[in-house]
Amino acid sequence: MLSIVAVIVTHEPGIDRLTNVLHSVLRQVDNVVIVDNDSRNKDLIKDLCRVSGKCLFIEIGFFMLLKF
User: Which domain of life is it from (predicted)?
Assistant: First the structure.
């Protein structure tokens, strides 16, 4: 069976707007991947993703790239 996945790329998003976008997108797809570019509010983004139940949070950023 095929799954439809949406990817949302963020950097310092407004949580209210991201919440609205996530809920809207989740009505249209099976799962969502949020790729965050080192936001200061990443803990709020992680919580939002976790609560949705159909979301994977991936964190990237300048300092993470230095580890490679």
Answer: Archaea
